[in-house]
Amino acid sequence: MNAQTNMNALVNKKSFIGLENCTWLYSGAEAPLHQGCQDAINEYISFRGKGPDGRKRNAEVEQSCKENVARLLQGKPSDIAFVSNTSEAMSMIAHSLDFKEGDNVVIHTLEFPSGILPWLQLKNNGLKVRVVQHRDWEISIEDIMDQVDERTKLVVTSHVSYLTGARLDYKELYSELKKTETLLLLDATQSLGAVPVNMNDADFVVCSSYKWLLSTHGLGVIAVNPRRVADFAPRAVGWRSVTDMFSPTRFENFSFHEDARRFELGFPSYPTVYATNFSAGFLLEQGIERIEQHILSLGSRLIEQLTDLGFEVMTPAAPHNRAGNISVASDRGEQIAEMLRVHNIYVWGGDGRFRVSVHLFNDTEDLDKLVDTLKGFK
Asked: Domain named Aminotransferase class V: which ranges (predicted)?
């Protein structure tokens, strides 16, 4: 790629709150809010004062939000559940699986803590946790499958690593796992909204609302592929999980919803639902393939610039092996992020690297500001 080629943002930066005052390369941690999200939250506040009409509107927006998220995931609204965050989603799934002593799950060393901690807790119940080591900051499908046997209940992986920015070919992995009884739990928090994700190529997909989906904190998505887990029953239950909360036999028994609603215990964060309904619709209007092409092109330019400066880029150079996160190995990662913040350039630093995240509102001017500032730290 020609490093001199200029790429404009896909959208007007002025439509995002606060971007006029900074260079935001921070979407892997959290994204800036579009003005439309603020308008959506204000709509919630307005309807909050309308009593029953407000509840009716909440239900309409929630359904619309599920439809938009389902479109992003290439699934159906009935397969989408809303919880509070990805960690809750992971734990609900973990504690609902019927583990027997000696069963195992497979995780890897590029996984975020929310995808690790529930399984470590279950080790006390006799669950074995198998950890696949990365090779040159990437995880091999072959290495994962080498750890899968007849006692493997689940493979847990992120689509895109929070640590390195490497993108895993989960479709290839799922193709192999479907030959076994092992399920796939895919965390799309670092990919949904930036690159295509298909929930039909995993058994469970989870995601947070406030990163690449461009929404606020407060919503976790659980997408349930019914092909292999149609009868999967959560261990937690609430009034929204069941078919009839006022059943005549409600003091004796209950029945879960047959669709993904069985994961929903109570009302979601409706301000977040309103915001996510807007932001998911906004992303769909822009086109995920178009967004992907933009961030991959920016990423190629950035990797070239960082390499020329002598930085050790952890993220794969090949576009199909990455998404919006570009990570640089550095034991000064946190310090570099803080020094950049002083210049109103936002990146994430720590855990042995600093991470630059590019989204649809970023352009080559953002990258050039970052690189010019980094020259002073070398």
From this structure: 55-370
C-alpha count within 13 angstroms, C-beta hemisphere, residue 342: 8
In a domain, 99, yes or no: yes
Q: How far apart are CA 254 and CA 334, in angstroms?
A: 50
> Are 191 and 332 in a shared domain?
no
Please give the chain's pLDDT, 378 residues, in tens: 444 578 999 999 999 999 999 999 999 999 999 999 999 999 999 999 999 999 999 999 999 999 999 999 999 999 999 999 999 999 999 999 989 999 999 999 999 999 999 999 999 889 999 999 999 999 999 999 999 999 999 999 999 999 999 999 999 999 999 999 999 999 999 999 999 999 999 999 999 999 999 999 999 999 999 999 988 889 999 999 999 999 999 999 999 999 999 999 999 999 999 999 999 999 999 999 999 999 999 999 999 999 999 999 999 999 999 999 999 999 999 999 999 999 999 999 999 999 999 999 999 999 999 999 999 876
CA 194 to each of CA 49, 73, 86, 89, 152: distance values in angstroms, whole numbers, following the listed order:
36, 12, 17, 21, 31
Q: For the domain that residue 267 is a member of, what is the CATH number? A: 3.40.640.10
Q: Are residues 47 and 84 in the same domain?
A: yes
Name the domain boundary from 218, 252, 285.
285
Residue 5 within a domain:
no
**Domain span at 21:** 13-34+288-377
Helix, coil or strand: residue 93: helix
Retrieve residue 136's tokens: 């040159």
- The neighbour count for residue 247, using CB atoms within 10 Å, is 13
Structural domains in the chain (count): 2
